[in-house]
């Protein structure tokens, strides 16, 4: 299907709100330092921190949507697939996928913790699905990514954006990867975006017999405060 507009009718919250609080505190501290310290260092520090916060804000309110639009467009979905989003949160990726599935279904799984993204709640995601006009093709489930409440080989595509790194421990993340493969149909694809552990994801997918396993950066649109925290995409296909 052709790309879908990244214009959004719903509210998707702020990723890592505690990070913005940290930036705010640090900028304020630098500004206070100007009252007791000579020289430009505190002002320079405040400016750099503000720039990092601006980069992070751009990523969370626009950049990630543009990046995922390009990823989803590149998948060339036919519109009838069954798609799973692991750690769907308020639905940024889930609903973007659902817009490309006029005859398909998009299922989101999450534990619905309210800290990251801000306001993460199953009722909010339902409201967002209504606002985006895709409620008829969206299903939401509560579940642990390491113990998915889903049947074997029930999805054509498994997505995840910035969720797997929150699974504590390498062993638990490996189990989550195994679960993603379990629910994927033969010929189906896995597309995972994350800020860490992506080499582990790729290795685990290879060990599980997945083919066409690749890693690539998603570029500046998904930098979190700067190039030192990039987002990497891992893709694979089930034979």
TrEMBL record:
GO molecular function: S-adenosylmethionine-dependent methyltransferase activity
Residues spanning the membrane: 12-34, 40-57
Pfam family, one: Methyltransf_11
InterPro entries, per the entry: Methyltransf_11, SAM-dependent_MTases_sf, UbiE/COQ5_MeTrFase_CS
Keywords: Membrane, Methyltransferase, S-adenosyl-L-methionine, Transferase, Transmembrane, Transmembrane helix
GO BP term (any one): methylation
Domain spans labelled Methyltransferase type: 84-192
Domain of life: Bacteria
Family annotation (Gene3D superfamilies): Vaccinia Virus protein VP39
Signal peptide: none
SUPFAM superfamilies in alphabetical order: S-adenosyl-L-methionine-dependent methyltransferases
Protein name as annotated: Methyltransferase domain-containing protein
Organism: Allokutzneria albata (Kibdelosporangium albatum)
